[in-house]
Specification:
The protein is of the alpha+beta class. The protein has 3 domains: about 110 residues, Acyl-CoA dehydrogenase/oxidase, N-terminal domain (Butyryl-Coa Dehydrogenase, subunit A, domain 1); about 110 residues, Butyryl-CoA Dehydrogenase, subunit A, domain 2; about 140 residues, Butyryl-CoA Dehydrogenase, subunit A, domain 3, CATH 1.20.140. About 50% of the residues lie in helices and about 15% in strands. Helix 4 packs across helix 7. The longest helix is centred in the middle third of the chain and has 37 residues.
Length: about 400
């Protein structure tokens, strides 16, 4: 394992004053532009085009992309704090740049110099919005079971297959698409390759899913029917590397999901804290009742622990260290904290929590996705245990 000292010249940092100024700008944007329109977009399941344009102007689509490619080059710790803050008011919009940045990570880490020069500036500016096309109808967590196949034909690859539950499928422009270039490979992961798949003839969008939560953000199918992609869009230029390229980017994705979980947990706590001091029963605010205080005490603790675990994973990522264990711990705990805090907040609100006039019901609907997305929590626990046992052999 590489040491922090050996990687010190590669570590991305940010001046604390610059980070503080950026977070203040996020707060102003949330108050002026986001909070007033959340219910409109969430209840109507309406794509937030204006907010997306504003996120591009703020540089969020280039948050973790290197400055040499026009990105902000932010460390993962700062990125996580941004996601936490936004998600504490509306989690869904952070998903628009999460998948986008996982794609960018794959290109920046593994792409050829030509691929980096061509694609990263466009992704950093938001001119092109990316996504991650891994999941298929028969393959979610078990990526090695994908069936989409790419066959070399001259200067192109011809891809056939279907991807599902793809964020940004409708409003995105390109995707890091995992397919099989050698379906008969053994082990299976050696036959998988990752392509930069931009929208062109042969790549169409299927049905948009009507979801419980995570509204306003398009999740849909991608259908490849004799879809021809230039061979120079094979990430890294070498077949058989796709599995590791895709899963390498998922560390940042899981940190993002953990940060979203933190935001949901903290946002639920904020709403419950406010409401419990306004709502009165038996002649006093319900916050003064012991039953409510017990709930708030647990919620405060969960939210704080989730934040610290997520920053721990982010710091490991910034050091360039392998952090699948840390990212898994953060993702698992923070997503469960989001569910638990939103449920307790619903109980504190009582009957009013079931009304769509109150924001807390959205936190409840959105939270369960965090336990499923970027690898189920059952899978996270297995990853954590395996890494723990590997590090503690007797």
């Amino acid at each position: 394992m590489a040491t922090a000292a050996a990687l010190s010249d590669q570590i991305r940092t940010i001046d604390p004053d610059d980070e503080r100024a950026f977070m203040e700008a996020i707060d102003v944007w949330l108050e002026r532009e986001v909070i007033p329109v959340i219910q409109h977009h969430d209840h109507g399941d309406i794509w937030p085009e204006k907010l997306v344009d504003q996120m591009a102007e703020m540089g969020l689509f280039g948050a973790t992309i290197g400055q040499e490619y026009g990105g902000l080059g932010l460390p993962a710790t700062t990125y996580a704090k941004i996601v936490m803050r936004i998600s504490s008011y509306w989690m869904a919009i952070t998903g628009i740049f999460n998948s986008h940045l996982i794609m960018a990570v794959a290109i920046e880490r593994f792409g050829t110099p030509q691929q980096k020069a061509k694609w990263l500036p466009k992704l950093a500016s938001g001119e092109m919005r990316g996504g991650l096309a891994l999941t298929e109808p028969n393959a979610g967590t078990d990526l090695q079971s994908i069936r989409s196949v790419a066959v070399r034909d001259g200067d192109d690859y011809v891809i056939n297959g279907t991807k599902t539950w793809i964020s940004n499928a409708i409003n995105g422009h390109c995707f890091a698409m995992l397919v099989k270039t050698d379906p008969g490979a053994d082990p299976r992961y050696k036959g998988m390759s990752l392509f930069i798949a931009d929208k062109r003839e042969g790549l169409t969008t299927g049905k948009k899913f009507d979801k419980l939560g995570y509204k306003a953000i398009d999740s849909a199918e991608l259908i490849m029917d004799d879809y021809r992609v230039p061979a120079d869009q094979l990430i890294g230029g070498e077949e058989g590397q796709g599995f590791f390229q895709a899963t390498g980017g998922l560390e940042l994705g899981r940190i993002n999901v953990a940060a979203r979980g933190v935001g949901l947990a903290e946002g639920s706590l904020r709403l419950a804290t406010e409401y419990s001091q306004q709502r009165e029963t038996m002649g006093k605010p319900i916050a003064e009742h012991q039953a409510i205080q017990l709930k708030l005490g647990e919620m405060v603790t969960r939210a704080r622990a989730a934040r610290l675990l997520t920053l721990d994973a982010s710091e490991a990522y910034d050091l360039g260290l392998r952090c699948d264990k840390e990212a898994g711990i953060a993702k698992y705990f923070a997503s469960e904290a989001a569910v638990d805090n939103s449920q307790e907040a619903m109980r504190i609100y009582g009957g009013y929590s079931y009304s769509k006039e109150y924001d807390i019901e959205r936190y409840y609907r959105d939270s369960m996705l965090m336990c499923i997305g970027e690898g189920t929590n059952e899978m996270q626990r297995m990853i954590i245990a395996k890494q723990h046992l590997k590090q503690n052999k007797i």
